[in-house]
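Field: COMPLEX_INPUT
Field: COMPONENT_COUNT = two
Field: RESIDUE_TOTAL = 511
Field: MODE = joint
Values follow.
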Amino acid sequence: MTAQVPTQTAAALGAARALTCRECGADYPLDASYACMECFGPLEVSYEPSLVTRDEIESGPPSMWRYEALLPVTAGAGSRPGLQPGFTKLVRADNLAAALGARAVWVKDDSGNPTHSFKDRVVAVALENARRLGYDTIACASTGNLANAVAAAAARAGLKSVVFVPSNLEAGKIVTTAVYGGTLVAIDGNYDDVNRLCSEIAANRDWGFVNVNLRPYYAEGSKTVGFEIAEQLGWRLPDAYVSPVASGSLLTKVDKAFKEFVRQGLVEDRAYQVFGAQATGCSPVSEAFREGRDIIRPVKPDTIAKSLAIGNPADGPYALDSVRRTGGAIADVSDQEVVEGIELLARTEGIFAETAGGVVVATYRKLLKEGLIDPSAEVVLLNTGDGLKTLDAVAPTSQPTFTISPSYDDFEANYTGDNA
Amino acid sequence: MSIAVKVPTILRTYTGGSAEVTVAGATLADAIADLDAQFPGIGARVLDEDGKLRRFVNVYVNDDDVRFLEDLQTPTPDGTSVSIIPAVAGG
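Field: COMPLEX_OUTPUT
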């Protein structure tokens, strides 16, 4: 069944044409829906063919809105109240490369976003659509970073927010959500419990749940990570990227971004590999990859990488598709390795990543060791969040080198010059 | 035997708009069969051509994901609640 799509709506939302089921291809109007009426498959924004040039992008604002022609938003998104995220640094990581015996490594550092994670990007697109559809309240189920982003964006936009999180979240992420005001609901359960509750609430409230009924729009925001990587490399694609995998959405949308840039003629078509990174304590997609399965078996998460602790990942099957299509891999690392990954990136590049970034660095190291990634490949590692949000992970191993009285003799007696 | 089934928005066209309906059956498979008998066509929305739960639907029996239980063979004794929820949310 194909729903009639009103053309004026399509015209009002950039090049977006319809919401289309990824499983069965049914089309739906560009409203607040996320699951196919026919088969429960996920709805994704589909677009009319259109062309955008490098000049048009380069003359846009220094934010993700430079790519607005490739997003489901009405023109002028950058001029409306929002956090204006994106265009974060792509850092050449030569020290890290040397430490790992790799040739060329970059870090896409999304800790530089307004609330210090890549979630500001997805929320920005969801917010635009919440406004378009007339919602006065935005809401979400979150493992923390999204909570920050929704609460802050709502404050800037003058909307109400209702944010749902697991009650065992890192203290830092509670504070960095609650400070923006709005309603913060802590739930005695894991993320999957929170998510399920939100699906039920979303069905009965007239709210814009960014990752439930607005999810098709929201997810498109992650494409801007891929767009920026290609533009910042000088309008070309890398050999590979390594993405953390929670729901699997970011990994698949960066892949989609690369394909869209190729289709637009903005970069040369070339082979690239997609790699996924999970923490062993929540690795349902990695397990499915290792065992050659298409079906993701849900797990009960138990890891310090709480921002990745989704045991029932919505886009897991599509993450597997991207990785298998490109000859990549998905691997997982222990919590100890996550901490080592955070420390390695901090000590080689001066970038303090949250646990998800530690998962990516440690997984890249593991993939190199296991020969699953070529050390001569130019690789972009995605750091999705700021280490200040997950201090507990490294606090036990990041302490003063020594503590002394305010005495010169004490200092001389203790300082050896290479305590580090 | 009485089982309360929570129906997601996208399936309420089958239930005349009802968000919760009552069915009977000793297992989840039986409960879904009765659901389909009462509301013809709804079963095929939840189960695929092979009679398995569709890839993008989550079913909970008394708040537990049935994939952690016995899937369609999960027992549904009197008073059980069943929730059917689209899987594609979150993250």
